[in-house]
């Protein structure tokens, strides 16, 4: 199960605590930064799925934080940003959007409305970088694999192999095809290397040979079927 990571940039402790608890109850993983300075450091450390940004921060304004997130090279430069602010004029809204924000919600707001807006961006993001099969989830941005919400450590090649099979569900992928697309080998080569990696993946994910998510097609290759 995928747990979205939400960055809260808010200098009011009470509001931040309320948001943190509420997001946790919605099965999300919030991280709170009290200042713009802290936030600009945090965005370089880990990838977030949505950023909640207060406009009126101390020292560095939320507007400036937004501009820096968008203008600098960091792993969150394209992460959706939702401004949360008491500013309510049309000019303020336009200014925030022009700074790079994706959305703008005015305080006070209903928590259910905030969740609905977050979900819009999570659904859009999931189409871009998540590949799922039952309880197995692959994040193509972070190269992380999750089984029942628990991270499983796959090697890069194991991750690439599983991703290829998941992206070509319900179709038998031949050994030759897998070698060409996962290993970039375009000549005669011992394809038993694939079996070694498949066995390692099955062991790490507790999959038996009959599991439809990773099945052997004898003499041909492998197939991942919808569950």
UniProtKB/TrEMBL annotation:
Residues 5-122 form the Response regulatory domain. The keyword DNA-binding applies. One of its GO terms (biological process) is regulation of DNA-templated transcription. One of its GO terms (cellular component) is protein-DNA complex. One of its GO terms (molecular function) is phosphorelay response regulator activity. InterPro entries: CheY-like_superfamily, OmpR/PhoB-type_DNA-bd, Sig_transdc_resp-reg_receiver, WalR-like, WH-like_DNA-bd_sf. Coiled coil: none annotated. Residues 127-226 form the OmpR/PhoB-type domain. The modification 4-aspartylphosphate is found at residue 54. It holds the Pfam family Trans_reg_C. It comes from the Bacteria. Residues 127-226 bind DNA. PROSITE patterns: OMPR_PHOB, RESPONSE_REGULATORY. Keywords: DNA-binding, Phosphoprotein, Transcription, Transcription regulation, Two-component regulatory system. This is DNA-binding response regulator, OmpR family, contains REC and winged-helix (WHTH) domain.
């Amino acid at each position: 199960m995928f747990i979205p990571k939400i960055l809260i940039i808010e200098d009011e402790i009470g509001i931040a605590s309320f948001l943190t608890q509420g997001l946790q109850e919605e099965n999300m993983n919030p991280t709170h930064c009290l200042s713009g300075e802290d936030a600009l450091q945090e965005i370089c450390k880990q990838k977030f799925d949505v950023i909640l940004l207060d406009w009126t921060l101390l020292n560095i304004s939320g507007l400036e934080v937004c501009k820096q997130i968008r203008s600098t090279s960091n792993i969150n430069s394209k992460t959706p940003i939702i401004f949360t602010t008491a500013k309510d004029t049309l000019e303020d809204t336009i200014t925030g959007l022009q700074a790079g924000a994706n959305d703008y919600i005015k305080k006070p707001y209903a928590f259910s409305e905030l969740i609905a807006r977050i979900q819009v961006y999570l659904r859009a993001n999931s189409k871009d970088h998540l590949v799922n099969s039952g309880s197995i989830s692959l994040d193509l941005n972070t190269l992380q694999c999750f089984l029942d919400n628990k991270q499983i450590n796959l090697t890069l090649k194991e991750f690439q192999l599983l991703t290829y099979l998941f992206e070509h569900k319900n179709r038998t992928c031949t050994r030759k095809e897998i070698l060409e697309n996962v290993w970039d080998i375009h000549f005669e080569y011992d394809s038993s290397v694939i079996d070694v990696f498949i066995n390692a993946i099955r062991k790490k994910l507790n999959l038996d040979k009959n599991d439809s998510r990773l099945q052997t097609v004898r003499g041909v290759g492998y197939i991942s079927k919808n569950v």
